[in-house]
Design goal:
Elements (H helix, E strand, L loop, with lengths): L17 H24 L6 H8 L3 H7 L3 H6 L4 H10 L6 H19 L1 H13 L1 H26 L6 H23 L6 H14 L7
Helix pairs in contact: 1-2, 2-3, 5-6, 5-8, 6-7, 6-10, 7-8, 7-9, 8-9, 9-10
């Protein structure tokens, strides 16, 4: 993903300082090197040392930015802007509508900016158990943050079982939509699949076809 300000953000934040811009540039160089190497030779054959050499940094620098190789390919710059966008939605808008709006916008943005990387990430989640496991672990943290956002909109306890189940159901549903998308060769519209996942969480299973 791009390190520049995401259009998801509701307000323009202050321009990052030189030190932060250097960090962003390094982080993006490492990601770009990892994506390129994985495309060339596969995930398992790609090593941290190769990524570091391609990005022109040391292996210790790679680990300073990304604790594991899996973190390099599953992370992007969209989580914070997405949550900021969610918080900025109208107060009287049903939270499920707010979530649907933000998720659809995020998916469309990812597909518009770097469709190849978005597809590669989905394929790795499908094909590489270590990537899928790390993604599930990362999404647990995002789910807790989403629960806090939902609680803020609904007045419910963010640590309440109902809020946590709802938030994690959404996270799990979106992950499954991503896996489904990769399984079917990325033929479907990714945003539409996300919409369908949210529909199931909100309304349950559709009626069986006769």
């Amino acid at each position: 993903m791009t390190a520049a300000r995401s259009p998801l953000a509701p307000d323009a934040p202050p321009r990052p300082g030189l030190r932060e811009r250097k960090k962003i540039k390094t982080r993006e160089a490492i990601r770009g090197a990892a994506y390129a190497l994985v495309e060339e030779q596969g995930y398992d054959a790609t090593t941290i040392e190769q990524i570091a050499e391609r990005a022109e940094v040391s292996p210790s620098t790679v680990f300073r930015y990304f604790p594991t190789k899996e973190d390099i390919v599953i992370t992007d710059e969209y989580d914070e802007p997405l949550l900021a966008e969610l918080a900025a939605r109208p107060a009287d808008e049903p939270w499920s509508d707010s979530v649907r709006y933000v998720i659809r916008k995020a998916v469309r943005l990812a597909m518009a900016e770097q469709p190849e990387i978005t597809e590669l990430r989905a394929r790795l989640i499908l094909e590489v158990p270590a990537v899928r496991a790390r993604m599930r672990e990362a999404l647990t943290g995002i789910g807790r943050t989403l629960a806090e956002a939902v609680a803020g909109r609904t007045g419910l306890d963010p640590d309440g079982l109902e809020v946590r189940v709802r938030a994690m159901s959404l996270i799990g549903g979106l992950l499954e939509a991503t896996v489904y998308w990769a399984e079917h060769g990325h033929r479907d519209d990714y945003a539409d699949l996300a919409d369908r996942a949210i529909d199931v969480i909100e309304h349950g299973l559709p009626a069986a076809k006769s």
